C-alpha cells in the first residue's frame, strides 16, 4: 500500500500533521525496514529529524557507529585484504581494499578511523606477512628461471601480489608506516627485476612491468624525500637497479602507437613519470659527489638521455663542485678561529 519510500514519506508527513499515531507508526515501520536509494536517503535526512521521537527508529542505520565496531571491522578487512585469498575472491578483496582506503581518507568528512599505535602495528604486521610471501614467491620464480621453467600459476600470483603491494603502500603512506615495506622492496629489487625481464622481453609491455613500476615509484619517493632513511650504499644500489629498467619501460611505452587498442591500457599518465623523475633526482642529490659524477656521466652518454631528465641534478652537482673548495676553506678557517678562542 505504500508504493515506495517517497510515497511513504508523504503519507508520514500528513499523518504527523493530522496526529494519526497508528498511520505514523506504520509509516515508520515501513521506512525503517526497506532499502533506500541515495536520493531517498537525503530526503529522509531532511524530513525525519523534525518529527520527534516517534520517527527516530528510521534514522537508526544512519547513526554514527561505535568506534570499537569500526576498529573491529577495519582489522578484519585488513587481515582479509592482505591474506592473498584465492583468485575466486578477487572482487571481494578489491572491494575490501577500496573501503579500507576510504575509511582512512580525509575528504569532505573526517576519516572514519584515526589509527593509533596498536592499529598501525597490526597493519604493518599484516603487510609484512604479505611482503614475506611475495619475497618467497620472487625467490621461487628466480629459481624456476634458472631451470628455464616459467610457472604460469606463479606468474599470475606474482601479478596479484604486486597489485596488493601497491594498494598496501598507499595504506602505509596514510599511516606514515612505510619503513618495513620499503626495506623489503629494496632487498628484493634485484630479483624482482630479474623475474620481470626474464618473463617479459625487453621491448614488450606487460601488466607486471607496470605494476612493478607503480610500486617502485612509491618506494623511490619514500627514499628520495627522506620518509624512510637508507644508508648510502643502498640508495646508490637502488639507482643502479631501477634506472636502467625504468628507462627501457618508458621507451617501450612511448613506442606504443595510439591506434594500438591492445596496448592502450598499458599507457601511464605523465604524473607518474614526473614522480619517478623527481624521486631519481632527489636520491642522486643525496649521494656523495663522486657517486653523483658517475651517475651523471652514464646519463650523458646513454641513448635514453631524455628520461629521466637529470638536468637539475647536473646543475646542482656543478655548482657544489665548483664552490666546494671555497666552502671547505671557509669552514677550516672558522674552525681554526673557534679553536684559537
List the helices and strands and how they pair.
Blueprint: H1 5-17, H2 21-33, H3 38-47, H4 67-81, H5 90-104, H6 117-146, H7 152-174, H8 179-199, H9 207-224, H10 232-254, H11 261-264, H12 270-286, H13 289-301, H14 311-340
Would you write up a description of this structure?
It contains 14 helices and no strands. With 341 residues, the chain is an all-alpha fold. The N and C termini lie far apart (97 Å). The model has no long low-confidence stretch (mean pLDDT 88).
- How much helicity do the residues have? over 70%
Average of per-residue pLDDT values: 88
- What is the β-strand count? 0
Q: What amount of the residues lies in strands?
A: under 5%
Which overall shape is indicated by the principal axes computed on the Cα atoms?
Answer: elongated
Q: How are helices and strands ordered from N to C?
A: HHHHHHHHHHHHHH
Q: Kindly report how far apart the N and C termini lie.
A: 97 Å
Major β-sheet profile: none
The tally of helices reads 14
Given as residue ranges, the uncertain stretches (5+ residues, pLDDT < 50) are none
Structural class: mainly alpha
Rg of Cα set: 28 Å
Main traits of this protein?
341 residues, mainly alpha, elongated
In short:
The chain is mainly α and 341 residues long.
